[in-house]
Write a structure and sequence with these properties.
Layout: E1 8-12, E2 40-41, E3 45-50, E4 53-54, E5 65-69, E6 83-86, E7 117-118, E8 127-145, E9 152-161, E10 164-171, E11 178-199, E12 209-210, E13 212-215, E14 225-245, E15 251-257, E16 281-284, E17 290-293, E18 297-300, E19 303-306, E20 310-319, E21 333-344, E22 357-360, H1 363-379, E23 380-382, E24 402-404, H2 416-429, H3 434-445, H4 458-461, H5 468-483, H6 486-491, H7 493-503, E25 516-519, H8 537-556, H9 560-580, E26 582-583, E27 588-589, H10 601-609, H11 615-627, H12 652-664, H13 668-684, E28 695-696, E29 700-701, H14 717-726, E30 728-730, E31 737-740, E32 749-756, E33 759-768, E34 771-777, E35 783-788, E36 793-796, E37 799-800, E38 813-819
Parallel strand pairs: 31-35
Antiparallel strand pairs: 1-35, 2-21, 3-14, 4-5, 5-21, 6-8, 7-12, 8-11, 8-13, 9-10, 9-11, 14-17, 14-20, 14-21, 15-16, 15-20, 18-19, 22-32, 23-24, 26-27, 28-29, 30-31, 32-33, 33-34, 34-38, 36-37, 36-38
Helix pairs in contact: 1-2, 1-13, 2-3, 2-5, 3-5, 5-8, 8-9, 8-10, 10-11, 10-12, 12-13, 12-14
Length: 820
């Protein structure tokens, strides 16, 4: 069978019933569902146990695990009058808890592990700390106690020996907060100099932090700890069943991580990191058996604190306590544990909750679809003050409502750019759109007087992003298309008008293009806070798409003149993009008309989807994007002039429109290849299953442990496979009209169902040799068009048809057979 770029449109009568492809097989999609079976989630294995631990399987509910630790010995002290100096130190501030604190070098020798020296050259080296003793000290080595907010990884220790500096020890790759550093030989000296050349990069910054330098080798009893693995990223409130403890108030510390790589003595991320917290949750274990549920708050004041909800795969439980938690918690004693579990709070996506589904002959694609659905479920949760982003994100207007957070562990705030993808995933899998509507309506309710719509509730709805009001427009149209909720469109129509007719004209230049920098927008960010200025193709192509979406909303609410006006403006912007931003030498659209020449995935993909690009331009631009293909996807820039890793960074968020563009321009095979590289990489690398916020150089988590490994904006494989490969999409609000336009590529068959307000719309197709068959089932009262390959013979219910144009009827089930 020969596929043509121009397809034969056939609009058909539909009736009730579901056809399967292949016809003889029963749906088997349930096997790919990833979510836990209940809200009581248990770890699947013990990953490791260190120190004095008996029966670590007790954490899995198999008996009782016992953690024991002797009390650490007293620490050695420098002679009275010892001082310290440093190459730099941070100015005093109120720290992370509002309490005044200093960071001068003397903190490293004051005997108080809660104070520390902090250099003042973030990410720049060397950082030097020099300790001068009042009298000579005999030293076999020193012990460096750093800080959970980041430890020195590479450093040397020099001693003043016989009047000259000598390197007595070198350390590389350190991750221990407390590190005993033995000298090459004992020495009696009055000065020790530590030179740091690399630190951990943490959410609190890449600084050298040293809490204490102890004169001598301090060997505390090892901290007993057990790491459990939940098998995949989960989210909710951890629980520990304690069988009891020694009477000295032993503490436990919990560290969480989505990956093994970033699980250490501190979590890969915890909300207290934004306030300079310790990076773990703490609890004091009572002597009597009890079940502790991790809850945000502190036992007393700022002591023994926990964050509550976490998103993670791995959990480390240690018998230990912060020095600052004394005497409420002690780092020694005995703790007995009889089980670990999690109260799973996100949407629980079991097979019975799926209102839409997908299945194909390609098992990998099936796995990626359901893994992305689960990723989205992790972010679909109730908005609660206790676990949303602490950076001013709490809003009474969202409190208690179901929303689409952007990530499982962070930032846990609904961003409209994320909803542009996660909303589609929501509509195609489980839900009627309530979560998306709650977000869209709330952001519109907080519209600024000049028409700008905030991207999220963070910072009290003030985070300045340039592109996100456009995503509000396109997301609102998607919501109405999938749900039929034209009442929402009518309620917020004035907000739509103000956004498009007041704010965006205020940042439009004389050439008719949006230009970041006008009207005080020079400091505005975008989805990745990229330092772009001037006429940017991505902003303008998205503007065209928003104007087109607004025209749909206008017609759906009886404002036809506005629709015509906005479509006219879209045509003008599109013409300006082609006139000023097309780079004929590269055969692609410029990222920006100013600065270094580069070409972005975002701008070029949206230009194709907006219809700005001609077929020849679309082919050329997509070829440019594919030229830099990586084993883990296509990069979001074709050189490194904007950011240092532009050719190595992959975003599923910006890759989704590229996938759509490839499917819609007859490049289904390349779209499937891109899906398999990008989603296949994430599925086969820790933590597995869930879709990452971004992929960095070499396939790494692009912002190290801070990276969200379960992010809703990365779930575009769901709409890509359902809307484009299976081919089902709405063409008017609530699927009153629809289209089924399969793009099979090399896939032998696919089938699925899409929820609509009137019931499921099902499609099933297969291609065998020169024969293509398609069966569609849609609710009564709807009509739709089928786009099938041309062939020698097209049969509609066994009748040969010649369609010079669409055949529009309404009804039940219909089958089309194409013989090539």
């Amino acid at each position: 069978m020969k596929w043509l770029r121009a397809f034969l449109p056939v609009t058909v009568l539909v009736a009730s019933g579901v056809a399967a492809a292949p016809a003889t097989a029963a749906p088997g999609w349930q096997q790919y569902v990833v979510a836990p079976s209940s809200r009581d989630v248990r770890p699947v294995r013990v990953l490791s146990a260190d120190g004095d631990v008996t029966n670590p399987d007790g954490l899995l509910g198999r008996g009782v695990a016992v953690l024991r630790r002797q009390a650490p010995p007293p620490k050695p002290a420098w002679p009275a009058g010892t001082t310290a100096a440093a190459s730099s130190f941070h100015a005093p501030n109120n720290g992370g808890n509002g309490q005044p604190r200093t960071y001068d070098p003397g903190n490293a020798v004051d005997g108080n592990p809660e104070t520390f020296w902090n250099d003042d050259t973030i990410g720049a080296y060397p950082d030097v700390l020099t300790v001068t003793s009042a009298t000579p000290v005999a030293l076999p080595g020193v012990t460096v106690l750093s800080n959970v907010d980041g430890v020195p990884q590479d450093f040397t220790v020099e001693v003043l020996d016989a009047g000259a500096w000598r390197v007595a020890a070198s350390v590389s790759g350190n991750t221990a907060v407390q590190r005993a550093v033995a000298f090459d030989r004992p020495v009696t000296t009055t000065q020790v100099r530590i030179t740091v050349t690399k630190d951990q990069n943490t959410p609190s910054g890449e600084f050298s932090r040293v809490a204490e330098v102890w004169p001598g080798l301090v060997a505390d009893p090892p901290v007993p700890s057990v790491v459990v693995d939940f098998g995949k990223v989960v989210a909710g409130y951890p629980k520990i069943a304690f069988a009891g403890a020694s009477p000295n108030r032993p503490g436990v510390r919990l560290a969480f991580s989505e990956t093994r790589q970033y699980l250490g003595e501190r979590s890969d991320f915890t909300r207290s990191d934004f306030a300079g917290g310790p990076g773990t949750d703490q609890y004091v274990v009572p002597t009597a058996p009890t079940v502790w549920r991790d809850t945000k708050g502190c036992l007393s004041g700022n002591q023994v604190c926990a964050d509550g909800l976490h998103g993670f795969r791995y959990l480390r439980i240690s018998l230990d306590a912060l020095a600052s938690d004394a005497p409420l918690a002690q780092p020694s004693g005995e703790v007995r544990i009889s089980g670990v579990s999690l109260d799973f709070t996100p949407f629980l996506g079991t097979p019975s909750t799926y209102r839409g589904w997908f299945e194909s002959s390609d098992e990998q694609l099936n796995q990626y679809w359901y893994a992305a659905s689960y990723t989205n479920e992790l972010g679909m949760d109730t908005f609660r003050e206790s676990d949303v982003d602490p950076r001013g994100a709490f809003s009474p207007s969202l409190d208690g409502k179901l929303v689409l957070h952007d990530g499982a562990k962070r930032d846990r705030d609904p961003y409209v750019g994320d909803v542009a993808v996660s909303g589609l995933t929501q509509y195609l899998t489980h839900q009627d759109g309530t979560a998306a509507r709650n977000v869209l309506a709330d952001l519109a309710d907080h519209q600024r007087a000049d028409g700008w719509i905030p991207p999220a509730s963070i910072n009290g709805y003030t985070l300045p992003l340039f592109d996100y009001p456009l995503w509000w427009v396109t997301s609102s149209w998607d919501y109405v298309l999938y749900t039929g909720d034209t009442a929402y469109a009518a309620s917020y129509y004035s907000h739509l008008v103000k956004t498009l007719d007041t704010w965006y004209p205020s940042v439009t230049d004389s050439r008719g293009l949006l230009a970041k920098g006008l009207n005080g927008t020079g400091g505005y960010g975008d989805y990745a806070f990229l330092p772009r200025t001037g006429e940017v193709t991505y902003y303008n192509a998205l503007y065209v798409r928003a104007l087109q979406a607004a025209a749909g909303l206008a017609r759906a609410t009886g404002h036809a003149p506005d629709a015509d006006r906005w479509l006219s403006r879209a045509s003008g912007v599109a013409a300006a993009v082609n006139a000023y931003l097309w780079d004929p030498a590269a055969g692609a659209y410029l990222d920006s008309a100013t600065g270094a020449v580069r070409h972005g995935q975002d701008g070029n993909s949206h230009a194709v989807l907006a219809g700005i690009a001609s077929p020849a331009q679309a082919s050329s631009a997509l070829a440019r994007l594919a030229a830099g293909a990586l084993p883990y996807g296509n990069p979001f820039m074709d050189n490194d002039t904007l950011v240092s890793d532009g050719t190595k960074r992959v975003y599923a968020f910006t890759s989704f429109p590229e996938l759509q563009a490839r499917f819609r321009t007859g490049q289904a095979a390349s779209a499937i290849d891109q899906i398999k590289r990008m989603y296949g990489w994430m599925a086969t690398h820790d933590p597995g299953i869930t879709a990452w916020e971004g992929i960095g150089e070499g396939g790494s988590h692009y912002e190290q442990g801070y990276t969200s490994a379960a992010h809703g904006w990365s779930t575009g494989v769901v709409p890509a496979l359902t809307n484009e490969l299976l081919g089902v999409s709405p063409t008017s609000p609530g699927f009153a009209t629809w289209k089924v336009a399969p793009n099979p590529g090399g896939v032998a068959w696919a089938r699925g169902a899409v929820p609509t307000p009137k019931g499921a719309l099902s499609a099933s197709w297969s291609q065998r040799g020169s024969v293509f068959s398609l069966t569609v089932t849609a609710p009564q009262g709807t009509s739709g068009s089928l786009v099938v390959p041309s062939g020698r013979l097209v049969l509609l219910d066994g009748r040969a048809v010649r369609a010079a144009g669409p055949l529009t009827v309404s009804g039940g089930t219909h089958t089309v057979l194409v013989v090539g």
